[in-house]
């Protein structure tokens, strides 16, 4: 991922035939977080040298790594030349070499990452070149005159305004097109440092970029987007959502930054926990869904929005729930929404205007009391709740056709769970009203109206039908399957109560092993501790959720340290306590000095009283009211790296603390994690 670049050297010949420019480029490598922590860097730097010879009609691009050059050597060379037999053809050659001497014991991992990214970049190269050629054609530029040496200054000045100068080619980063940057933004990365770069200032967005990808924004709305994006960049150095996605959350909360930030952070944590970003690549829907779920994508509406068709009346919701369970249905709906986001990006490129939502056409022909089966309605309400929280402002229009008499009953059950802004986008037609004025033809072209609605377009959406009872499964089978579906994440959830911390036991056999952790505070404020004991604690005791009036199994609570144990005698503290606020994320490590048992503890944080009075502060009272039933929630992941598997300096492992799911820029060694955290906060 290209981040920024600085010009190191630049040379131009007097006749402008030769132009050489050397840049130092800052890149964000798509590598596992643990590998970045071990390496001790967030970004890597490459030096790129472009040599354009207009006289010889050649362009040479050389690049090599500056970061870790004593451990890894990367050299790349690209060459553009004119074909010797046909001057209208361009020849392209590319070669690269990778030599990994040592990399903290992760040599094979680095090699796989490098080869994967290099292969994807080669595949993307042709697409990027064609993209810019098309941009030139749209600007009316189909021919660039060949360079000719200047005869005289007067002649040069008289013809300069008719000749478009040939800019030096650059290595366009693969992330440029993925992140939705327009032509002007990417080309400006090659300009000199003194020139303003369009679309990149911190306090203003490029007007062409807004028009092309975001739509009409007032100055206030633009300012809200920039401020929220900057906050994410400062506190969430992982995968930053695109501007279009951030804008959806702002619109859902009428551009109230605080409210939008809250629901966006919750959504990012949810996506991270359930690995929603990878659902399209890693999850294949069961065959039952592919055969009996009567829904699918079907062209687009008149506004260019992707069109999703759902034949709800023909769908056996009871059969699907009995055969698959709620979790499989929910995951399938999530994959549909992820596909919708992808199609919106594609249509934005195709139609040349921002398209950030899709249209849903729901046919209720066949809807009856069978669809009001209570578990089915419960599953539907849960799906609506999840979609509303994590995909706001993605539904542009909902067309409900052939609504039967039973529909008002279903609408009464469902409508309270739908946001007011979303409800305004609903258009409901009873019977055949959709065929008249103000009906379907106002929103969808006649050529793509599905055949089952009287149109001429064959719709490949499954027809649904009753799910065979032979495919039904027992409650126990469904429960096990549900657990399997939703535990494909390396993170675990835990509840922390007042007086009942959550503790994790790690047994260390060899000294100098490395314990790493990564956790998010989803709710409430907690104190994080690390203890060491020479003797093993008693078997874990799970706290009774009923004692805290908790009815849902939202997270486990395990206590290991016996109440009769005394600190300093039975166990010792090896790290200073770390106070973590709600919404924060903490990553760090600890190099063990002794073998034995280490206990990671998340404890409820009691609000301190004001130093000068026994009365609590107003801020503390307000904060305490937000923690219902004195309950906190954390999502955590731990890993132990054995000393024999770790090569290089132990000091490269660093502890960091951030505002939200990031590796902080200001980090110190693990032994100073507490003071480091306070400084970075």
From TrEMBL:
Residues 487-640 form the GOLD domain. Residues 156-176 are annotated as: Disordered. PROSITE patterns: CRAL_TRIO, GOLD, PRELI_MSF1. Residues 1-141 form the PRELI/MSF1 domain. It is found in: Cytoplasm; Golgi apparatus. It comes from the Eukaryota. One of its GO terms (molecular function) is RIG-I binding. One of its GO terms (cellular component) is cytosol. Transmembrane segments: none annotated. Its main location: cytoplasm. Residues 285-461 form the CRAL-TRIO domain. The keyword Cytoplasm applies. Keywords: Cytoplasm, Golgi apparatus, Immunity, Innate immunity, Phosphoprotein, Signal transduction inhibitor. It holds the Pfam family PRELI. Gene3D superfamilies: CRAL-TRIO lipid binding domain (3.40.525.10), GOLD domain (2.60.120.680). One of its GO terms (biological process) is negative regulation of RIG-I signaling pathway. Interacts with RIGI (via tandem CARD domain); the interaction is direct. Interacts (via GOLD domain) with SLC18A3; the interaction is direct. Interacts with SLC5A7 (via GOLD domain); the interaction is direct. May play a role in innate immunity by inhibiting the antiviral RIG-I signaling pathway. In this pathway, functions as a negative regulator of RIGI, the cytoplasmic sensor of viral nucleic acids. Prevents the interaction of RIGI with MAVS/IPS1, an important step in signal propagation. May also regulate the SLC18A3 and SLC5A7 cholinergic transporters. This is SEC14-like protein 1.
């Amino acid at each position: 991922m290209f981040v920024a670049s600085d010009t190191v050297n630049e040379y131009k010949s007097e006749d402008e035939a030769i132009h050489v420019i050397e840049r130092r480029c800052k890149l964000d490598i798509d590598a596992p977080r643990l590998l970045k922590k071990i390496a001790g860097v967030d970004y890597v730097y490459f030096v790129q040298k472009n040599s354009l010879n207009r006289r010889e009609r050649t362009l040479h691009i050389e690049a090599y790594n500056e970061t870790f050059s004593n451990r890894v050597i990367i050299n790349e060379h690209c060459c553009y030349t004119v074909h010797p037999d046909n001057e209208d053809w361009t020849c392209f050659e590319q070669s690269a070499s990778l030599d990994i001497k040592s990399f903290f014991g992760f040599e094979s991992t680095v090699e796989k990452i490098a080869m994967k990214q290099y292969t994807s970049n080669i595949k993307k190269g042709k697409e990027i070149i064609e993209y810019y050629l098309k941009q030139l054609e749209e600007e009316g530029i189909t021919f660039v005159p060949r360079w000719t040496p200047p005869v005289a200054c007067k002649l040069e000045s008289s013809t300069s305004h008719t000749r478009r100068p040939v800019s030096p080619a650059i290595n366009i980063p693969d992330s440029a097109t993925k992140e939705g940057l327009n032509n002007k933004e990417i080309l400006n990365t090659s300009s000199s440092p003194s020139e303003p770069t369009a679309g990149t200032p911190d306090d203003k967005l490029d007007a062409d970029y807004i028009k092309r990808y975001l739509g009409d924004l007032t100055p206030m709305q633009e300012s809200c987007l920039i401020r929220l994006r900057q906050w994410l960049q400062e506190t969430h150095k992982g995968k930053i959502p695109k501007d279009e996605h951030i804008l959806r959350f702002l619109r859902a909360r009428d551009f109230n930054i605080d409210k939008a930030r809250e629901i966006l952070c919750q959504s990012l944590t949810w996506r991270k926990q359930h690995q929603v970003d990878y659902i399209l690549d890693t999850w294949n829907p069961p065959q039952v869904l592919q055969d009996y779920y009567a829904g699918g994508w079907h062209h687009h509406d008149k506004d260019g929005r992707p069109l999703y068709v759902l034949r709800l009346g023909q769908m056996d919701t009871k059969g699907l729930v009995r055969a698959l369970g709620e979790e499989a249905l929910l995951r399938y709906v999530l994959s549909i929404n992820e596909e919708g986001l992808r199609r919106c990006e594609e249509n934005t490129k195709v139609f040349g205007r921002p398209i950030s939502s899709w249209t849903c056409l729901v046919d209720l022909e066949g809807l009856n009391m069978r669809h009001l089966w209570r578990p089915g309605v419960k599953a539907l309400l849960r799906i609506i709740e999840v979609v509303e929280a994590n995909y706001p402002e993605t539904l542009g229009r909902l067309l409900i056709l052939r609504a039967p008499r039973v529909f008002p009953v279903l609408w009464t059950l469902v409508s309270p769970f739908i946001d007011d802004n979303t409800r305004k986008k609903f258009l409901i037609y009873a019977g055949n009203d959709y065929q008249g004025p103000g009906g379907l033809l106002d929103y969808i072209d006649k050529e793509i109206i599905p055949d089952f609605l009287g149109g001429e377009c064959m719709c490949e959406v499954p027809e649904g039908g009753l799910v065979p009872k032979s495919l039904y499964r027992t409650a126990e089978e469904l429960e096990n399957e549900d657990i399997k579906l939703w535990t494909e994440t390396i993170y675990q959830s835990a509840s922390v109560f007042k007086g009942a911390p959550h503790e994790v036991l790690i047994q260390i056999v060899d000294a100098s092993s490395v314990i790493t952790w990564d956790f998010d505070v989803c709710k409430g404020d907690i104190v994080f501790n690390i203890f060491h004991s020479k003797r093993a604690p008693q078997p874990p005791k799970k706290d009774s959720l009923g004692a805290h009036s908790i009815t849902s199994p939202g997270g486990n609570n395990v206590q290991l340290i016996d109440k009769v144990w005394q600190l300093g005698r039975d166990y010792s503290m090896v790290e200073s306590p770390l106070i973590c606020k709600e919404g924060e994320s903490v990553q760090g490590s600890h190099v063990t000095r002794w073998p034995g048992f280490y206990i990671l503890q998340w404890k409820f944080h009691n609000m301190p009283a004001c130093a000068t009075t026994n009365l609590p502060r107003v801020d503390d009272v307000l904060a305490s009211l937000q923690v219902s039933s004195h309950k906190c929630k954390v999502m955590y992941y731990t890993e132990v790296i054995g000393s024999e598997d770790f090569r290089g300096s132990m000091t490269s492992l660093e502890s960091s603390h951030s505002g939200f799911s990031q590796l902080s820029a200001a980090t110190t060694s693990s032994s100073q994690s507490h003071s480091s955290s306070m400084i970075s906060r």
